[in-house]
């Protein structure tokens, strides 16, 4: 009997220890993605910027900041040749214009008076020339004195000179002298190009030589920067330059140094560097800023084949891991382990981890690192 009671107690204990399936403790949650999510607005505030991984020759380089300017020999100003008032303006900033295209009409009060004087002088010159020719024929037949002919010739030349002077004066105003256009002068585009600035309003009074617009041919522009004295050994004429503009982070321009300044600024100990850039697609605008990475011809010859590189600033230490943040979507970034090799300046060769064409964060890395570390602490 005692054994029966022990068996029953054990059966009851086992039965009571079982938990109904609906009352089981929740299973351990699967770890969440380690990717960092950051709203676009926050990215803008934190100045997060990404760029494509490229393959390049890794040698000793220098990186210099600069901006885009128009080339002086492809830039022209539209100015008033004479004082007057603008009757109409036919162009806007940013518009493409052709050489000779009418841009504005200027009303010049003195123009009508000059045209009247020109008409009078031209008529007198014509009559005086006819009289001189008549007297020349008579003089040759001894029907008129030679002095009479000489006096008539002098008077004809005087009126002709006066006519030429008035024509030149009217032409200097930009107005055709032989056509009647009243008091108006048409200002025309001096070159083919884009209107990069407009300083003209209808009804505005203009002084002589006052500029109303600047027209530039932007198919070829310059990236102009300043290089420090200590970096001059790394820069020479013809040196390879890779330009990346802040406003066009996905675009890299390969060019070469065209001009290196011959004098140093005594205050900054820098000299200018000029890099011409092809801009036939018009994507690059005047005033854009960016960085140019320059490698001298001697260093390029000794550097070896192109390799995948990243900027040193893209690296982050994430709990002992060396990572870069690869952009996976507009608001998603993957912390990816990388192994780096040789270094040159601020560039690192990549042994593994990222490939050419991957988009990685190069500015604002600390913000993403902080979020990633916070997420890992929360999960633990």
Estimate nothing, just give the exact number of structural domains: 4
Largest sheet: spatial strand order? 15-14-18-4-13-17-16
Q: Assign the structural class, choosing from mainly alpha, mainly beta, alpha/beta, alpha+beta, or little secondary structure.
A: alpha+beta
Share in helix: 25-40%
The overall pLDDT, averaged over residues, is: 84
Largest sheet: 7 strands, antiparallel
| General shape | elongated
The overall strand count is: 25
What is the rounded Rg? Answer: 40 Å
Poorly predicted parts:
1-32
CATH uppermost class of the largest domain = Mainly Beta
- First-last Cα distance: 55 Å
**CATH topology of the largest domain, anyone?**
conserved putative lor/sdh protein from methanococcus maripaludis s2 fold
Helix count, DSSP H or I runs of 4 or more residues:
6
- What's the CATH architecture name of the largest domain? Beta Barrel
Strand content: 35-45%
Account of the protein in words:
The chain has helices at 2-17, 40-45, 109-140, 146-172, 297-302, 365-379, and strands at 36-37, 49-52, 54-57, 62-70, 75-79, 84-89, 96-97, 102-107, 184-188, 193-198, 205-206, 211-216, 220-228, 240-245, 252-256, 259-260, 270-278, 289-295, 306-311, 316-318, 321-329, 332-337, 339-344, 347-352, 359-363. The protein has six helices and 25 strands. The two termini are 55 Å apart. By secondary structure, the chain is an alpha+beta fold. It is elongated and about 120 Å long.
